[in-house]
Amino acid sequence: MSGANTIYGAGMVELGQTFSMEQLVIDNEIIGMNFKVMEGVPVTDETLGVEAIKEIGVGRDFIGHPSTMANFENASNPTLLDRSMLGEWIAAGSTSATERAHEVVKDVLANHKVEPLPEDVMKNIKKILKKADADFVKRREGGE
User: Fold this and answer.
1) Where are the alpha helices (DSSP H) in 4-118?
2) Is the pLDDT of residue 93 over 90?
3) 85 with 65, same domain?
4) Of 94, 114, 118, 123, which is the most exposed, with the fewest CB atoms less than 10 Å away?
5) Measured CA distances, 44 to 34, 41, 47, 49, 50 (Å)
6) pTM (2 decimals)?
7) What pLDDT was estimated at residue 4?
8) Number of independent structural domains in the chain
9) SS3 for 19-52, per residue?
10) Range of the domain at 142
11) In 3D, which of 10, 47, 44, 41 has the Cα closest to residue 25?
């Protein structure tokens, strides 16, 4: 990752001609995973599985080892993308990422409460807007 810090197009489909709240939820998950990768990877005896390698031996199966299971979500821990085994996914209703994203959208629309900005912040914003409006009128009337 090159360190870019601008993300553009979240929620857009059809080359930006359409916006999808479900796509925004999916894109948010992907963006969060990218941020997690950009944090870097800690390199320690534990994260390298040194003790597990000594215990199991080179070239053997580490997937089921407790240290693997304890650390495999460290790279990212998505809440929307489903990493279940096929049988578990089918038993849970085999919902697509889009269907799960739609449930998130419905929940946010029904339950999200926006906290108002503190009064001092609002006062400062109004002051900035008032000055910007006055400057605009002044320029429009040829005052500058």
Assistant:
1) 21-38, 45-48, 50-56, 66-71, 86-91, 97-111
2) yes
3) yes
4) 114
5) 22, 9, 5, 8, 9
6) 0.65
7) 63
8) 2
9) ECHHHHHHHHHHHHHHHHHHCCCCCCHHHHCHHH
10) 115-144
11) 10
